[in-house]
Amino acid sequence: MSILGILIIVLVILIGFIVGLFLFLKPIAAIEIQKNFYATINWRIEPISMPKELRNTKIMGLCLLGIVFMAFVYFTKKLF
Q: The whole model's pTM is what?
């Protein structure tokens, strides 16, 4: 695998880790970013149940962290 390919994989894993941590640690901020994005394209979204939305956002962050960890392990074993 080329150096560029390795750098791209490392970058994707790093971005996934950062986004996963953000979703888990700052779910309210993540929801607000999503609401602001949809407002810019002329849509209004509101969670029906904020406690459920916070829980689901945290779970999504943990799932993303798990996927990123599995990708890291896979590519580490493949490279070495």
A: 0.88
Going by C-alpha positions, the residue among 74, 77, 72, 80 that lies closest to residue 14 is: 72
Query: Helix 27-40 vs helix 3-25: angle between axes, to the nearest 10 degrees?
Result: 100
HSE at residue 57, side-chain half, CA atoms within 13 A, is 22
Q: What DSSP string runs through 25-80? A: H-HHHHHHHHHHHHHHTT-----S-HHHHHHHHHHHHHHHHHHHHHHHHHHHHHH-
pLDDT tens for the 80 residues of the chain, in order: 789 999 999 999 999 999 999 999 999 999 999 999 999 999 999 999 999 999 999 999 999 999 999 999 999 998 87
Q: Give Cα separations from 41 to 6, 26, 29, 45 (angstroms).
A: 36, 24, 19, 11
